[in-house]
Amino acid sequence: MAEPEVTVVGLGIMGSCTLWQLAARGVRAVGYDRFVPPHDQGASHGHSRMLRRLQFEGDQYVALADRAYELWRQLERETGRPLFTRTGLLIIGPGDSQLIRGARESAERCGQRHEVLDTAELRERYPQHRVAEGEIGLLDPEAGFVSPEEAITAALDRACALGAEVRIGKALEKLEGRTVAAPGTWLGALVPELAQHISIERHFFAWLPVRDPAAYAPERFPMWIRESSAATGRPIEESHQHSVRIRAFGFPTTDGSRVKVGFPVTGVRVDTPEVDRRPRPQELAMLAQENIDAILSGVLAEPSDFSVCLYDNSPDGDFIIGSPPGRPELTVLGGFSGHGFKHAPAVGEIAAALATGTQPPLDVSPWSPLRL
Ligand SMILES: Cc1cc2nc3c(=O)[nH]c(=O)nc-3n(C[C@H](O)[C@H](O)[C@H](O)COP(=O)(O)OP(=O)(O)OC[C@H]3O[C@@H](n4cnc5c(N)ncnc54)[C@H](O)[C@@H]3O)c2cc1C
Hints:
- By secondary structure, the chain is α/β, with parallel strands linked by helices.
- The chain folds into 2 domains: 6-82 and 146-195 and 316-371, FAD/NAD(P)-binding domain; 89-141 and 199-313, D-Amino Acid Oxidase, Chain A, domain 2 (2-Layer Sandwich).
- The protein is built from 10 helices and 18 strands.
- The chain has helices at residues 13-24, 60-79, 98-110, 119-125, 148-161, 187-190, 236-239, 281-286, 289-293, 344-355, and strands at residues 6-9, 29-33, 49-51, 84-86, 89-94, 115-117, 135-140, 144-146, 165-168, 179-181, 199-209, 223-226, 248-250, 258-262, 268-270, 305-313, 320-322, 330-334.
- Strands 5, 6, 7, 11, 12, 13, 14, 15 and 16 form a 9-stranded mixed sheet that branches. Strands 9-2-1-10-18-17 form a 6-stranded mixed sheet, covered by helices on one side.
- Strand 13 and strand 14 form a beta hairpin.
- The two termini are 37 Å apart.
- Bound molecules: flavin-adenine dinucleotide.
């Protein structure tokens, strides 16, 4: 390839989608990754990521998710690969919890489909969940999951088919020319002036066997997230800097025998992306049978697989998309704060527009680095 017009640094889901979107515009683009994507050293791994229409993080994410849904479908069509499995998403918590209230009010303001289940309905329709008195459910019927590994492969394959180039196993340290930096938790190392605004947080998910796999099949058991003290007994403020956080989440079985669960409430701050990826005692303690039994029935606390994943948190939990002060040639994609994946194709489209000096399709001012 002749000299690239745009270089993309980092080929997790954000960089891969950006490379695809640049190539789709006919831009000569080269993408670099320090590892061989998809890999399990960043934030885009673990076989499933939730896509949802309902947003408790703010209405600015509704249009972004809507556009991303369109582009996920486009990527499926263009590659001929099914990526999205629709399951619905059940948000469970006290009626006045931040998750339920935030998502419900946003859905009402933005005219999104949703269903509220009172305690009795929730228990009757989804007996797999243990529901305390006063807890209700909010169902996002259009939610579902995508495999991050398959999505990265699809986006990179499509980008290459459209003329992009991928160079792997090489960490870029110097940024020159028009560049999109999508290095995940390495953002502080690559763009030092943003280091003070990014904190890295360690999370995990585990795969647990179920007694009755049919009850946990995608057709009967939606993905779920909970903001219930039953999951941990700890108030949410103790465990996270952000005001709206998920205590526990999970997926239906995709292999006919196990479900994937995570407990974001155990998240701890770490200094570097290069972490020891073996389970910590606190993480294993969270997987004790009594904690699982507090939220789910028929799930055995015998993890057969375990994976660590890192959040790149911004100070306010909002994304960082745009050029840092004095660096017009650089477009940064970062600060995804544990909720970026679903939006990746739309973020890639925005990045491709910004990097080529054209008007992005959505208002990006809420994510400007200038607010930091
Ligand atoms: C446990 C967990 C659960 C989550 N669940 C969801 C969910 O259900 N739904 C959702 O929407 N979001 C979810 N998220 C968040 C989402 O996964 C992330 O926001 C998203 O994957 C971030 O992608 P990224 O491309 O920015 O980062 P990464 O995937 O980390 O990619 C960054 C890439 O940059 C490369 N790199 C770094 N530095 C350099 C360099 N100098 N040169 C070359 N390459 C470099 C790295 O090797 C890496 O491949 C979750 C996150 C975690 C940790």
